[in-house]
From TrEMBL:
Domain Response regulatory, residue spans: 7-126
Keywords tagged on the record: DNA-binding, Phosphoprotein
Signal peptide: none
Entry's Gene Ontology molecular function annotations: DNA binding; phosphorelay response regulator activity
Domain HTH LytTR-type, residue spans: 159-261
Record's protein name: DNA-binding response regulator
PTM annotation (4-aspartylphosphate): residues: D59
Record-linked PROSITE patterns: HTH_LYTTR (PS50930), RESPONSE_REGULATORY (PS50110)
Superkingdom of source: Bacteria
Pfam families attached to this UniProt entry: LytTR (PF04397), Response_reg (PF00072)
PANTHER family: STAGE 0 SPORULATION PROTEIN A HOMOLOG (PTHR37299:SF1), TRANSCRIPTIONAL REGULATOR-RELATED (PTHR37299)
Length: 261
């Protein structure tokens, strides 16, 4: 079956620049469907929830919410059974590049956008979308759908964390939670916090699903330690673990796990 045409959202606080970008995309990529053009970060979040576009073209400095924070909220709330959008930041400032790529940006384009540069971006996006058609179901499945088959190795009981020339052994039974932190994963126990290089997505299928629960794209907690879940007036949901003072945010994608019985 033929794949549906790709879709996109443009978030740009300058209406003239938004129209120029839309017009150039129509010329370079006629099959791309622009589902919405918005002019601030909050509107981008709402439009992304409504349309679930394949691609986000995001300005960074916008009213209400900047593009970096808006993308974080969009990804946090993205349906777990659908591939996350490819993100292209289009901005006049190069100083945000590191922050952008830490948010898994596909590309970072400086204004004024040159047609040749935008052509390259479109080719990169087309190539990535084609790759997804073959492996999307596996590459973007929620971690609890990637459970180990019975024939594979058993769940991890120890995790190794290297600090300098010293190798620390962490029993998974001692882990309170794991949190993705830039290029690392922070492993938190009762009395220490260590960083490991294994990405959270690779680590999660090897954890015992009876012992760990994902509450956010970047946070996995020890299930028996869950004490309470608090929903604030603004709609944010936070989880508290037994014996710990910090509160951990629960994204909307996982809020259904904590409904009252």
């Amino acid at each position: 079956m033929k794949a549906p045409p790709p879709t996109a959202l443009i978030a740009e606080d300058e209406p003239v620049l938004a129209r120029v970008l839309s017009r150039e995309l129509a010329r370079l990529w006629p099959s791309l469907q622009i589902k919405a053009i918005v002019h601030d970060g909050e509107a981008a979040i709402e439009a992304a929830r409504q349309h679930l576009p394949d691609i986000l073209f995001m300005d960074i400095q916008m009213p209400e919410r900047n593009g970096l924070d808006a993308v974080e909220d969009i990804i946090d709330d993205w349906p777990t059974d659908r591939a996350a959008p490819l993100v292209v930041f289009v901005t006049a400032f190069d100083r945000f590049a590191i922050d952008a790529f830490e948010r898994a940006a596909m590309d970072y384009v400086l204004k004024p956008v040159e047609p040749q540069r935008l052509t390259l971006t479109c080719e990169r996006l087309k190539s990535r979308l084609l790759e997804r058609q073959g492996n999307d179901a596996v590459a973007h499945a929620p971690w609890h759908a990637l459970r180990r088959p019975p024939s594979q190795e058993p769940p991890l009981t120890m995790i190794q964390a290297g600090i300098g020339s010293t190798l620390h052994m962490i029993a998974t039974a001692d882990i309170h939670y794991l949190e993705a932190d830039s290029k690392y994963v922070r492993v938190v126990t009762q009395d220490r916090s260590l960083l490991i290089r294994t990405p959270l997505r690779e680590l999660m299928p090897r954890l015992d699903e009876r012992q760990f629960t994902q509450i956010h794209r970047s946070i996995v907690v020890c299930t028996p330690l869950i004490d309470k879940v608090v929903r604030e007036d603004a709609g944010k949901i936070y989880l508290h673990l037994k014996g710990r003072s910090e509160r951990l945010i629960v994204s909307r994608s996982y809020a259904h796990l904590f409904k009252p019985m």
